[in-house]
Amino acid sequence: MTALTLALSKGRILEESLPMLARIGLDPAGDIDRLLRVPSRTPGVSLLIIRPTDVPTYVEYGAADLGIVGKDVLMEHGSTGLYEPLDLDIAKCRLSVAAQKDAPKRDPRRRLRVATKYPEITRRHFADKGEQVEIIKLYGSMELAPLVGLADVIVDLVATGGTLRANGLIETEVICQVSSRLVVNKASLKTKHAEIAALLDQIRRAGQTLKAA
Ligand SMILES: Nc1ncnc2c1ncn2[C@@H]1O[C@H](COP(=O)(O)OP(=O)(O)OP(=O)(O)O)[C@@H](O)[C@H]1O
Ligand SMILES: O=P(O)(O)OC[C@H]1O[C@H](OP(=O)(O)OP(=O)(O)O)[C@H](O)[C@@H]1O
């Protein structure tokens, strides 16, 4: 069998992918807490366990044939070189704008300051509304920024809304819905077409079975 490499987003998406991967024999056959590359239980298919934001890059350059990654990461990356055939319907959340419930009034002559891990999506979102904003790139704990006066609003992921509520923030706008996607390197799709088509079919069916259970 032709060898295939699948890049997995470590953390939440990996956790949520494991039941589906186990169903089709692609779960890791090794210590995923230590190893960055592990064989799957299917001979010839290996898994890369990497940071979510790196998955599009690995797949785009062909270091992995396939990847599992959030739509948020794909939109921020602007992955033109990737084929995105499947919505896996896991790690579901939304990307939203949020502000302090009792936000202090802002001087209207000053641009809105937005703290986010997603500068590209944020820039596009406000530009589409004809609004130029000042974007402050952060790498985590966005909810803190409005509380300490670093930003007026944030653009971040929301699922239950619990983190926003706990920090006295409210969702003011939903930018888009987010779930995890299977992405495929376009060259691999041609050179390993039969293997990838079979895998897509298995994943599709495993997803349906899991939903029905
Ligand atoms: N609260 C949530 N509920 C459901 N899905 C989520 C939630 N938060 C994030 N996600 C999805 O899971 C992905 C990975 O999130 P996770 O928190 O595991 O990684 P991270 O710590 O943000 O990654 P990195 O190490 O690259 O900063 C996100 O890109 C998004 O698609
Ligand atoms: O609406 P909720 O259900 O509260 O989920 C939203 C939170 O989940 C994500 O963070 P995560 O828990 O992944 O922590 P991290 O950003 O530190 O990785 C996101 O960045 C929010 O902070």
UniProtKB/TrEMBL annotation:
NCBIfam families hit by this protein: hisG
Segments passing through the bilayer: none
Complexes and interactors: Heteromultimer composed of HisG and HisZ subunits.
Protein name: ATP phosphoribosyltransferase
Pfam family, one: HisG
Summary of the function given for this chain in its UniProt record: Catalyzes the condensation of ATP and 5-phosphoribose 1-diphosphate to form N'-(5'-phosphoribosyl)-ATP (PR-ATP). Has a crucial role in the pathway because the rate of histidine biosynthesis seems to be controlled primarily by regulation of HisG enzymatic activity.
GO cellular component: cytoplasm
Domain remarks: Lacks the C-terminal regulatory region which is replaced by HisZ.
Pathway membership, UniProt: Amino-acid biosynthesis; L-histidine biosynthesis; L-histidine from 5-phospho-alpha-D-ribose 1-diphosphate: step 1/9
Gene3D superfamilies: Periplasmic binding protein-like II
Domain ATP phosphoribosyltransferase catalytic: 51-204
Keyword GTP-binding found: no
Assigned protein family: Belongs to the ATP phosphoribosyltransferase family. Short subfamily.
Reaction catalyzed: 1-(5-phospho-beta-D-ribosyl)-ATP + diphosphate = 5-phospho-alpha-D-ribose 1-diphosphate + ATP
Molecular functions per Gene Ontology: ATP binding; ATP phosphoribosyltransferase activity
CDD domains: PBP2_HisGs
Keywords: Amino-acid biosynthesis, ATP-binding, Cytoplasm, Glycosyltransferase, Histidine biosynthesis, Nucleotide-binding, Transferase
Chief place where the protein resides: cytoplasm
Species name: Solimonas marina
